Amino acid sequence: MNKKVLFLSSVLAFALAWAQRTVQVVAAADLQYALKEVTHAFEARNPGTRVLLSFGSSGKFYTQLTQGLEADLYFSAEKLYPELLEKKGLAEAGTRRSYAIGRMVIWLDRRLGLNPSPEALKNLRITRLAIANPVHAPYGRAAITLLEHYGLLRRRTNAPVPGLKKPFPNLSWEEIPWERLSQGVEAYWDASPLRQGKASFQFVYGENISHTAQLALTATQAGILALSLAVHESLSRPGVYWLAPLESHLTLEQDYVILKGRRRPEVLAFYTFVGSPEARAIFKRYGFLLPGE
């Protein structure tokens, strides 16, 4: 065997070993800070194992995973998507587990001089409101239901949603076909309570809840965000927030799951660590409610 072949063999062996010791995670954007801390704690306890994190929209990741996206673990902001992966045979049986319940806040820039609350969104100074796109982002769906709960959005009787078995206004939050609501919120809900007395008002949509937080911070001065992001200094210093009661919006039960064929020792080690007291303490510090508490 010549030196070139030996070199290539060594490179391939190293690459394979590196891949085996690497855990690839795709996760909902509300975990941007909490899961990074969990990962650092895990890597400190497991030298040589590296966890690679990618954050984005739960719905978009779900679609990509059904199309062959390479990943070991999937953390969703809504249990629906891991359940669907199970049904499609794309997840390891028996590995879907709840890791948290997400909390919602109304966040306002301090410069507005307003106390954050649902009523504050009617203020004439709030002419744009950042929310995650409800078509594919669970936090966007929760934001819409929050506004509806407080009478700031009213369902249109003639909402253009084809194929419904009963009128759109009569659907429960869980029955709404969110993935089909692609024409913007105001095609389906009347936003008159938010528009009243204002020269203009518009929803500004983030691709995921992290992008939505950036829009609130840099463009709109107001947003409906995840508590797990609002508590971070990047948002808590320039803004103030109001924590929404759990019953006021769509429940954000959050599950994670090992993807099919990815049940390696390193993956199982990180999967197990997520449920450890150390990891749970980190999630709790970022405002998540924990299973069993």
Automatic annotation (TrEMBL):
Record CDD domains: PBP2_AvModA
For this UniProt entry, which residues form the secretion signal? 1-19
Keywords from the named record: Metal-binding, Signal
Quote the Pfam families the UniProt record gives.
SBP_bac_11
Instruction: Give the UniProt family note.
Output: Belongs to the bacterial solute-binding protein ModA family.
Protein name per UniProt: Molybdate ABC transporter substrate-binding protein
**Species, as recorded:** Thermus antranikianii
Q: Which gene does this sequence derive from? A: modA
